[in-house]
Please model this.
Amino acid sequence: MRKILAFLLLSVLPAGSEPPAQRPRDDPGAAQVIIRWHIQKGFCVVPGSSNHKHIQENIEVFDFELSPEEMAQMASLNQKKRYFNMSYQQIKDWMENYEIWD
Model:
């Protein structure tokens, strides 16, 4: 619960607040690196998971910072390729036929 509160507090820090200190990290997972990259780029990140371990890992992205070299390396991976290629009509058809189940 304490880390969730810390996450909420960090998410509402005023602009210009001190960034977290860069520290040697224990090899964060790919998801953590991707989330952290988006945060450092200034994007709003809303990760989702129903797995408690993954939720915890998603929260633990505020105790490290990617170096400028790592940020550049991540940016260089952009292949200008869309991975979600459904047309508006395909999305509409899919949503109309989507069944909610419990």
In short: The chain has one domain: 2-9+20-97.
